[in-house]
Amino acid sequence: MVVENFHPSTNVQRTHLGSKIVWAVLIFTMVVASAVTAIQIYRAYFSAIAHLETRFTEIEASYLPSLAAGMWSVDRPRIDALLDGIAKIPDVGLLHLQGELQDQWRRKNAAHAKTLLERDFKIIYREGKEEFALGVLHVELMATNIEEQMWNTAKSIAVTTTVSLLMLAFFVLLIIRHWIGRHLEKTAEYLQQLDLTNLKKELKLQRRNKAAQDELDLVVFAINAMRLSIQDELEKRDALDKELELYREELEFLVAERTADLRSKSSLLEKKSDELLLQNRELDAYAHTVAHDLKQPVSNLMGASTLLNTDTLELSVERNRVLLNSIQQSAKKMHAIIDSLLLLSSVRKQDEIPMERVSLEDTVFEAKQRLDSFARERHARISIKGTWPIVRGNAQWIEEVWVNYLSNAIKYGGNSPQIELGVTNLANGYVKCWVQDAGPGLSAEQQSRLFEQFTRFDTNNTEGHGLGLSIVQRIVNKLGGEVGYEHGQVGGSLFWFTLRLK
């Protein structure tokens, strides 16, 4: 037996052992991975089919009753909404609804190309024990998702099997670990730690020969370039954010300033509008007064003066006295009306009122003295009750309030009026001043117009001209109080106003 020595032939192409191992591992991995993948795909296919069957169950349980109700009531928007909901269920590729009246609805998924499962559902509406067939819903489940799942499963199994088998070739992995893996780990660790607060840190690989560069160095260069780009963009964004914040604060300030200015002007315009409306009402009322209240005394003056100036008419002394007395009474009435209008105008125009300590007792006494002769003519009896405190206000205006209330009580308090004046302390630092008479009182409709200007409830009484209570309300409001009316406890009327204590 001859044994020949084996020597590598120079004519045979040489290959590296590492390459052989890699190719052997790759081929073996592909064969095993293919077999395992086929088995797993076969099992996954039937599992996916069983899972698809649940889509039909879901449609039948969740949508068919509502769809039957919508078709029964011919609610097309509801039918469309339900069909859209079914069409959004995963794996549903085609819907076709055929109604009993030949009306049809159709929905198709854009990705539907191949039908895997299909089923027809009868649309039945139940009312009590009766059933009504309304149509048929045809549903097709597409194979797109199943194929994607099979493909993903194949890839997953192949990768898993390949990795498991590649572990046998550990020396190849060690090489990969030494040349590539450790650098990738360092890169991954760097990227995990990288955030917006440490963009200045540079990524560097630990290599002996730094002059020789490969693809990993290109990745590192790209990462560092991206880091610098992000850092620059963040700096620009921060600058823009600060600038926008300044603009926002300035805009908010301008908006707030303009809003406050507009509110102020709007409030001023509303106030002026109210004042103009009130002035127009006063002017209208003034014209009404001049046309009516002044017409009679002017007519009396003209008539009496005409008679007195007639030369052909001889009048007795008594007749002359009556005419002169009529002229005098008409002049007094005109004078009283003009005084009331002037007082009302002065109260309206005066914004700031000089406030002082005022004795209520003195104002009541002065008002009673002014009306003494008028009270005697009407046989009025005026009684004053209680202790009168010191208040803050204007003595002349408070006296005018008493005069108006007292004159009204004397006029409208009935025959031989019985009038009471008093004051009541309130808990809020105010006092309630009141005048009560025993007259017939006022109705609810009269009370609602009580303090309006030029309002007169007794048109037969020619002594008043309807300005008194409106003047009272203006005066008391200027002094910081309120006015009001109540039914007296024993009948009649009780007029009151409030003032602040000293």
UniProtKB/TrEMBL annotation:
Reaction(s) catalysed (UniProt annotation): ATP + protein L-histidine = ADP + protein N-phospho-L-histidine
Where, by residue number, does the polypeptide cross the bilayer? Answer: 21-42, 157-176
The EC number(s) this enzyme carries: 2.7.13.3
Q: What residues does the Histidine kinase domain cover?
A: 289-502
KW ATP-binding (keyword) present: no
Which ranges of the sequence are coiled-coil? Answer: 196-257
Entry superkingdom: Bacteria
Know the name of this protein?
histidine kinase
